[in-house]
Amino acid sequence: MRALEESLGAKYATRDIRALAEPFEALTDDSPFWNHRTEGLAILSAGPVFRAFDLQHSVKDLLVVADSLLVKPLLRNVQSAHRFQILRLGLHG
Q1: What is the model's pLDDT at position 30?
Q2: What are phi and psi of 32, to 5 degrees?
Q3: Is 93 among the domain residues?
Q4: Which member of 49, 66, 78, 83 has the lowest number of beta carbons within 10 Å of its beta carbon?
């Protein structure tokens, strides 16, 4: 959280930092959230949008404060030669 607040402080006014960091702070004490994680985690936030994504592979720690979402490092995570099977269940079969 300290690194996030420092990065936010370099780009935003002090009065805005609290509101921007609030959703991240809420996760720090959310035990159910942390108890059900996969190998990797990506959290993206922009304005009212705050989303956490489970990743099947571990990723390097990266914190970026920018005017747009940085998804390029996540592309490597979804580009793999792994084989997947999908099972779809519907109401009638």
Answers
A1: 93
A2: -60, -35
A3: no
A4: 83
Cα–Cα dist 3/41, whole Å: 17
Residues 6+ apart with CB under 8 A from 12: 20, 65
Q: In terms of residues, how long is the chain?
A: 93
Which ranges constitute the DSSP H helices of the chain? 2-11, 14-28, 31-35, 72-78
Residue 45, pLDDT > 70, answer yes
Give pLDDT, residue 83. Answer: 67
Q: Which residues contact 68 (CB under 8 A, 6 or more apart)?
A: 46
Domain range spanning residue 44? 2-77
Contact 4, 66 (CB under 8 A): no
